[in-house]
Design brief:
Strand 5 and strand 6 form a beta hairpin. The radius of gyration is 23 Å and the shape is elongated. By secondary structure, the protein is of the alpha+beta class. The termini are far apart. The chain is built from 10 helices and 7 strands. The strands form 2 sheets. A 5-stranded antiparallel beta sheet has the order 3-4-5-6-7. Helix 2 packs across helix 4 and helix 2 runs parallel beside helix 5. Helices cover 51% and strands 8% of the residues. The chain folds into 2 domains: 175 residues, no CATH class; 130 residues, no CATH class.
Length: 305
């Protein structure tokens, strides 16, 4: 008898935990560099030294990301049958020598390179070719990183972060990576012992503000449904959270719909529509005419009204 058969929920939970761990590693370097630039500026030589010191950990983040993708794919296969993950001939399977049953984890699993093939064989909705190319590229790079110490293998923090968002979107559809990350922060190990989650919203704002800045317009539209070529406004709710701890830019909200008389501001970080009134800002020199009703600030300059 085979026991300890995994569920879809268990695979999904493990996959998202890997994504979160990889994100933790990568985003910490990005925020550290931003903080250093804000305090004293960073010389080009120092920045190169910073990334060289971070190189191995960034590669680790890439490896963990790939592990998360594989777990997520296994979860989708398990939704049809967990036994599709068992590889090899039955003659090679482990034996139940005690009569207590054989744990599912004792069986050899199918290779990572076969996951997409098996998935598409049993699911009516196939994974798109873009996903397959991205997965294969990441898998090969992961293999190089795990089995060699070639210093020519280099991965940027931005690549890791974009990969996490891209794969999460492909694998979990409309589920927002912002919300997944927020949930992990609220349920972190530290939160269980310090009982302090007041900083979580500000940290989410800080992370995704930094990420939003480097995304290409096509990526921002694809991942967060925000057109970077539109006029960007300060999200009043995110600004309120950020100002409680430290100031950082929250200019990523857009009018929805994007029309001259629109009275709603959409923010992908707090995933909300904020009511605004179209009146001129009272601060001299500010051309803004989008004022937050709830927080009574100008969403162009951020000043109180």
């Amino acid at each position: 008898m085979i026991k300890d058969i995994p569920t879809v929920a268990e695979f999904d939970s493990a996959a998202k935990a890997q994504f979160d761990f990889a994100w933790d590693i990568a985003i910490s370097f990005l925020l550290s560099l931003e903080e250093a630039r804000g305090y004293a500026g960073v010389e080009e030589e120092d920045e190169k030294a910073f990334w060289e010191a971070a190189r191995q950990r960034v590669m680790t983040a890439l490896i963990v990301t790939q592990q998360g993708v594989e777990l997520a794919l296994k979860g989708r296969i398990v939704a049809v049958s967990p036994f599709l993950l068992i590889a090899g001939s039955p003659s090679d399977w482990p034996k139940d020598s005690t009569g207590a049953g054989i744990s599912f984890s004792d069986f050899r699993a199918i290779d990572a390179q076969d996951l997409i093939k098996v998935h598409d064989a049993v699911h009516e909705e196939k994974l798109n070719s873009e996903f397959s190319v991205l997965f294969d590229s990441l898998r090969k790079l992961r293999n190089k990183a795990m089995h060699t110490v070639d210093r020519n293998i280099n991965v940027s923090v931005k690549e890791v972060l974009v990969n996490i968002i891209e794969f999460h979107k492909n694998l979990y559809g409309d589920a927002s990576w912002v919300e997944t990350r927020r949930d992990f922060l609220y349920n972190s190990a530290a939160a269980r012992v310090f009982f302090d989650t007041e900083h979580v919203e500000a940290l989410v704002v800080r992370e995704f503000s930094a990420v939003f800045k480097f995304l290409e317009p096509a990526q921002a539209l694809k991942f967060f449904n925000v057109n970077k070529r539109s006029r960007l406004y300060i999200c009043p709710e995110c600004k309120h959270e950020a100002d409680r701890f430290d100031f950082f830019e929250t200019r990523y909200a857009v009018l929805r719909p994007n029309e001259p008389n629109s009275e709603s501001l959409f923010c992908f970080v707090c995933d909300s529509l904020h009511s605004v009134v179209r009146e001129d800002c009272c601060q001299g020199g500010c051309p803004g005419n989008v004022l937050s009703l709830e927080y009574d600030i100008c969403c162009t300059c951020g000043e109180d009204q």
